[in-house]
Amino acid sequence: MEEVASLMQGFSIALTPYNLALMFIGIVLGVIIGVLPGLGGANGVAILLPLTFTMPPTSAIIMLSCIYWGALFGGAITSILFNIPGEPWSVATTFDGHPMARKGQADEALTAAFTSSFVGAFVAVVVITFLAPIIARFALKFGPAEFFSVFFLTFASFVGMGRGSPWKTVAAMALGFALAAVGMDGVTGQLRMTFGYDQLLNGFDFLIAVIGLFGIGEILSSMEDGLKFQGSQAKLRLRVVLTTWKKLLAYWSTSIRSCIIGCWMGITPGGATPASFMSYGLAKRISPRGNNFGKGEIEGVVAPETAAHAAGTSALLPMLTLGIPGSPTAAVLLGGLLIWGLQPGPLLFVEQKEFVWGLIASMYLGNIVGLIVVLTCVPFFAAILRVPFSIIAPVILVICAIGAYTVNNNMFDVWMMLVFGVVGYVFNKLQYPLAPLVLAIVLGDKAEESFRQSMLLSQGSLNIFWANPLVASIMTLGLLMLLWPLASSLRARFGASRSATA
Amino acid sequence: MHEQGDATDEPALVSNRVMEIVVALLLLGVSAIIITDSVRLGIGWAEGEGPRAGYFPFYIAVVLGTASIAILLKAVMGKGEGLSEAFVSRPAFMRVITVLLPAIAYVGAVQFLGIYAASAAFILFFMIFVGGESVLRAICVGLAVPVFFFFMFEKWFLVPLPKGPIEALLGY
Question: Domain-by-domain residue ranges, chain B?
Fold first, then answer.
């Protein structure tokens, strides 16, 4: 039980008053970010990243990851009270959460959402605690081919697990890789696709892309519906919290199932959003009250929220152990690690023990703090939503601009932010997925590097990806993921024609 | 362009189908640019060195091109849900423009006025002319936000942001 000892040591690092205060600030900021339109986990963390450079890395990552937990919690508030999913992964929560609120059960729905979020995240942290050191130890033996196969699986998962058109997923991803390739080539030193513009020498910073795509893009989308915005009151009474908790115990099987789905989707980067939909769909099919789903069934809140948080949290596992983030926010945190001079990957567990276990311990504490904060402060957060959009919109735009500037102290980045904002707006409306685009910008260089190194080792033969059972099985899994949409569309067509003739 | 199916009964400015085609063509263009530049850098194998610089981007661009052609064909043939629906209605597009144009002006102004003064001006303009808020309220928010950020960045976190003539006048 080496992990338990390390974890205890982690707690002693995380449990200083300074770090606890940062946790609290992070959670509150995170919920606010999750509640406000135009700010979300990914771009919120991206904007605040430069402010943490002066802090010790452990404290900084504790605060930033707490912002992430807070944003995960915050998404549920807007979904339930206003039918506006603050985050993509809370869309499934609106299906039953908002009908419950309309029936006057908002407090029950909120309690269910927060508690399930907590359960999902908690299970995922336990998984991280015990699985991460094993994976890290295992990954120490990884060569470039193995790493490339994991990258391949990551991106194939987006195609296989995505809900929209697989071609659009592929296009978004390829665009991300292309943007990542801009600038100086790390191997040969040649300039790629800069076309003589000095600003492009260092390529596109994915933090700018995140701020533009998610922040500005969302402001533009919100503007479409105009500035009118209906707010409503919300209160949470202790009595309701306790009775809801008692009720939730009956849904233990849904919780366990959703945790498994969430952890799986978070580790193999499907992400929180598909996890929440998948969990909701399964719960609807399995539950004896499945027919009531969509009309305000508490189980329909439990399932997506548990899965979304389990996925959102476990997305940090591949980020820490392999250096491959499972979600855009995990990618931003990874960017932070690099800036602090910490190289994510298997060696992190050997060389930066204190940092890793401090972070893992802070995940436990952060989620407990988070649950308490959201349960007690719902009226405050709902009040933020009553601030008119005509105030929120310009202020958020200013925050995004400042955030974009501080990434590299560069005005060109602020212009790029606007460009990415328009791209995000259009892509969103046409249902091009943004997460694979962002991850491709982050991972592009590394994926290319591992691919080129593998090719060097094998002298150009693709056989290296099937050279040993490990790499072969990851690649095969990736290929299956890639072909999944094709197979299911064929099945749908075949099935449809058969039912038509019958 | 009078497309059916716009839920809000506002006239459609452009349909999803047209936008799908436009975006697919743009992506195809991007792919073509990358292929051209990759070919310039060399997409083959350098003896003794390994893959050339254009090797990886070339195949990425091929994938991007293939995907955009597939999306293009689907849109042209009219396959897919909601293609005939409005991408954006005229009034909605005007509302988007009312935030996008001031935002562009704002970023342009940052270079001359510094980020704090430009932010104040942008918030004031937006709240009064776009949001229709009262002037007093606009002045409160428009001044409070930049002042707060000034202290946060310049004083507490020591992250210098672009400053202009007004800050210079105040001695910063």
Answer: 12-84, 91-169
Kindly tell me if the per-residue pLDDT of B63 is higher than 50. Answer: yes
Taking CB atoms and an 8 Å cutoff, what residues of chain A touch B71? 165, 167-168, 171
DSSP letter at A89 equals: G
Interchain contact, B88 vs A219, CB within 8 Å: no
Provide the token pair at A184: 């100086």
Q: Does A451 touch chain B (CB under 8 A)?
A: yes
* Residue spans of chain A under pLDDT 70: 1, 38, 85-88, 226-235, 269-271, 495-502
Model-level ipTM above the cut of 0.85: yes
Rounded CA-CA distance A178/A236 in Å is 48
Q: What is the DSSP string of A109-141?
A: HHHHHHHHHHHHHHHHHHHHHHHHHHHHHHHTT
Q: How far is B23 from chain A (nearest CA, A)?
A: 9
A242 CB contacts (<8 Å, ≥6 apart)? none
> At a CB cut-off of 8 Å and minimum separation 6, what does A372 contact?
none
Encode pLDDT of A175-189 as tens digits.
999 998 888 887 777
pLDDT band of B67, cuts 50, 70, 90: very high
User: Is the model's pLDDT at B151 over the cut of 90?
Assistant: no
Q: What is the DSSP letter of B10?
A: P
- Residue in A133, A393, A182 with CA at minimum distance from that of residue B123: A393
Taking contacts as CB-CB distances below 8 angstroms, the residues of chain B near A171 are 27, 64, 67-68, 71
Q: pLDDT tens digits for A452-502?
A: 888 888 887 888 888 888 888 889 988 988 888 888 878 777 765 555 444
CA A137, CA A347: separation in Å to the nearest integer? 9
The two structure tokens encoding residue A203: 């390529």
Q: Which of B27, B49, B87, B99 to mutate to test the interface with A (most CBs of A within 10 A)?
A: B99
With beta carbons under 8 A apart, name residues in chain A contacting B103. Answer: 216, 397, 418, 421
Contact B60 A181 (CB under 8 A): yes
> Closest Cα to residue A49, out of A216, A270, A271, A205?
A205
Closest chain B CA to residue A172: B64
